[in-house]
Amino acid sequence: MKKIILGIASSIAAYKACDLTRLFVKSGYSVFPIMTDNATYLISPLTLETLSGNRVYTGTFIRDWNEMAHITLKEGASLFLVAPATANIIGKFANGIADDLLSTTFLSVECPVVIAPAMNPGMWKHVAVQENVAKLKSWGVTVIEPGEGSVVCGDEGIGRLAEIECIFEVAVNVITG
């Protein structure tokens, strides 16, 4: 069974990670979710645990188990996918900032990496975000371009999380080569 590490950052689109998890599990993949602290305010780790059948990792330091999650999670992983990827997590990845479990895992994985950005259109267009995305692409990270349309704040433009089926298809293609 192929192992996917699914990172979920704190975009309102985080709820779509539930449908994405369901698609992967239904197709025979094993999904290990990592949520940023702020993402846990948007969707429940219990929901993802139920859908994935695996522990949901939400912090770097957990006292009731003895493992370094950013190291043990990467073992046997076929893909590291972050959907949604916020401007914040993209910036951390592009600049080697490792201050939470998701960003430390990014720096430790040896498998292919795919990110699906989701943010306000103004943020997506900002030169800092575009430079960070370009840097990640130059390192071999696959970036699934965000969609165009209305976002939760009412703004219009490019920034919506790509359709779940598209993310799934790209991820499977990266895994299967």
Task: Give a topology summary.
Layout: E1 3-8, H1 16-26, E2 30-35, H2 45-52, H3 69-72, E3 77-85, H4 87-94, H5 101-108, E4 113-117, H6 121-125, H7 127-138, E5 142-143, E6 147-150, E7 156-160, H8 164-176
Parallel strand pairs: 1-2, 1-3, 3-4, 4-5
Antiparallel strand pairs: 6-7
Helix pairs in contact: 1-2, 1-8, 4-7
What can you see in these coordinates?
The protein has 177 residues and is of the alpha/beta class. The chain has a single domain, classed as Rossmann fold. Helices cover 39% and strands 21% of the residues. It has eight helices and seven strands, in the order E-H-E-H-H-E-H-H-E-H-H-E-E-E-H. Strands 2-1-3-4-5 form a five-stranded parallel β-sheet, with helices on both faces. Strands 6-7 form a two-stranded antiparallel ribbon. Helix 1 packs across helix 8 and helix 4 crosses helix 7. The longest helix has 13 residues. The radius of gyration is 15 Å and the shape is globular. The model has no long low-confidence stretch (mean pLDDT 92).
